Amino acid sequence: MIAKKRKYTKHTGQEKLLIGLLMLLDVLIIGFLVFGNLKLYSENKETSSRYIDLNKELEYLENKNQELKELFSYASEEDYTEAVLREKGLYKKEGEGVIVITRDIPPLEEQGQVKEQQTTESASVWQKIFDFFGSIFRRD
Fold first, then answer.
1. Longest dimension (CA), the chain
2. Mean pLDDT highest for which of 39-43, 124-128, 133-137?
3. Would you give the end-to-end CA distance of the chain in angstroms?
4. What is the tens place of the pLDDT at every residue in 77-93?
5. How far apart are CA 132 and CA 140, in angstroms?
6. Count of Cβ atoms closer than 10 Å to residue 123 Cβ
7. pLDDT, averaged across the chain
8. Using one digit for the tens of pLDDT, what is the confidence trace for 96-115?
9. Distance CA 22, CA 137 (A)
10. Do 96 and 90 contact (CB within 8 A), yes or no?
11. In this structure, which long-range contacts are made by residues 13-16, counting pairs with CB atoms below 8 Å and at least 24 apart in sequence?
12. How far, in Å, CA of 140 to CA of 136, rounded?
């Protein structure tokens, strides 16, 4: 028996509609998957850049921590403590004397003159003009 060739038949309206809906469904599924992959890619990129930044910050903080440990070990030594206390004048050995040097404070008379000069220097232009005319017309 030899099979007969069938004639090509046109699709009915329902078949065309079903094929169109299936194609639309395929496009929607593929679009959803592509969109999800793009979203995951961008999140992965952000996460990796954040990871790099945090590693740099961690490295900086570890270096800073090491420096602070070295400084703390130096500051806790007896020689450093003695040097700081000597600078402040709070510590002296036997047979040593402490000399305190202060700023020279001018006498009160000089302080008054300095204040008077400062007030005349800081006076406004109108105040200077008023003082000038006041001194001309002042009765002695």
1. 151
2. 39-43
3. 151
4. 778 778 888 787 777 77
5. 15
6. 13
7. 82
8. 777 767 777 666 566 666 56
9. 109
10. no
11. none
12. 10
Tokens of 88: 């402040």
Q: How far is CA 20 from the centre of its chain?
A: 58
60: pLDDT strictly greater than 90: yes
The whole-angstrom separation of Cα 83 and Cα 88 is: 9
- 19-51 per-position pLDDT tens digit: 999 999 999 999 999 999 999 999 999 999 999
CB contact burial 65-79 (16+ within 10 A = b; e otherwise): eeeeeeeeeeeeeee
* Length of the chain as a residue count: 140
- Both tokens of 139, joined, read 């009765």
Tokens 């496009």 map to which residue? 27
* Residue bearing tokens 């450093």: 80
Question: Would you give the distance in Å from CA 24 to the centre of its chain?
Answer: 52
Q: Give long-range contacts, CB 8 A cutoff, 24+ apart: 12-18.
A: none
Do residues 91 and 82 make contact, with C-beta atoms less than 8 angstroms apart?
A: yes
pTM over 0.85: no
